[in-house]
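Troubleshooting entry. The earlier prediction with zinc ion gave an output that would not parse, so I re-checked the input for stray whitespace and re-submitted. Clean input:
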Amino acid sequence: MAEQPNLSTPDGLESLVCHACGADSLSVFDQSRGLAAVTSDCRAWPASFLVAICPVCGLVQKVVDAAWRQSASRIYGSYDLYHQTPGRTEQVIFDQGSGLALPRSELMFGHFFRHRPLATSGTYLDLGCGTGPTLTAFSKLASGWQLFGYDPHLPDAQRVLAIPGVVEVFAGDLREISGKFDLITAVHVLEHVTEPLPFLQAMRSLMHADSRALIQIPHFPSSLFDLAIFDHCSHFTGSSISQLLAEAGLAIEAIDIELIPKEISIVVKRGEPHLTRPVGDQAESRAAVVSSIAWLCALQAQAIGVDTEHVGVFGTSIGANWLHGLLAERIEFFVDEDLSRQGQLYRGCPVLAPNAVPGRAQVLMPLPPVTAAQIRRRLGSLSADYLLPPGDTFIN
Ligand SMILES: [Zn+2]
């Protein structure tokens, strides 16, 4: 077990204000300064960050200061989601219920409409629509609906407007949108928002009494790289998101951390705002931060200490890119079981099938220990040295 991070307020930072509740006494985890960073669109990011927890509302968060904002703005200015997926479609999730591999949005809507019949017409607004994967999935389901998109950093309005059913796309300030919508989605948006309470309050003002909103966010205690994702400024638990929604006047109709692995899926409707600020339970969050930072530190130490000239990295997603920031040109190749990626170049290095890895190489596995152990067993007796990540197999 690595040394526990210190909890303190760093010198020179006069104001450490919680970006969810405004409390001005954030506790900082100093050890997070030494961690490598990666962006949510899977690029190594050469800047340090500071993880903190709010002693009032319990939200785990990045310290959002001028340097963080500057970096985040550069990240969004060059955002390239799904660059590693052929066709640039959205992430595919294995549905435990149906046994099918489905795009994330289809899985989310399928689950939602299983319990609530889809009306023949209505208005739908997707917050943080990007290039429109969620709008596209909804469009296939609901041909009689009017669709709207919103994104403060709208990358390609024409592409979104070309999706069948889309009437209008909005950019700029969310509070300037008028009218009410029957259904609203915010899929992987809230963890990026530096003022989440006003954002949720604005979302509430776009809902009538029968509206529903679907929110998806990472569940940080089960998502081992979440703290290292630079542009994620909030790291939610079931408890901390529930506090925030209550304060915004949104009533939870359903909350699920099983539907999509490592994510929290929530259905909300309009409720009454809480007049007093709810106090969050911090024990779970604090323990999750300590173990997450310790694991990332240990994984970094393992990678830096690899003693061979032939270094490979297993995978081509978030963990692999995080290691790419640490090791850069020391990486000779990537290894991926995905046939569509094998034989390609990735970050300037070849992507090899597991059985094509040279015998003298060492392959780092930046994956949760349970997953890495399963893969290692499945690969069987290959000659390369596959290095299991540090940690016990209970970390999944
Ligand atoms: Zn707070």
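This one parsed fine. The CA atoms of residues 45 and 217 lie 21 Å apart.
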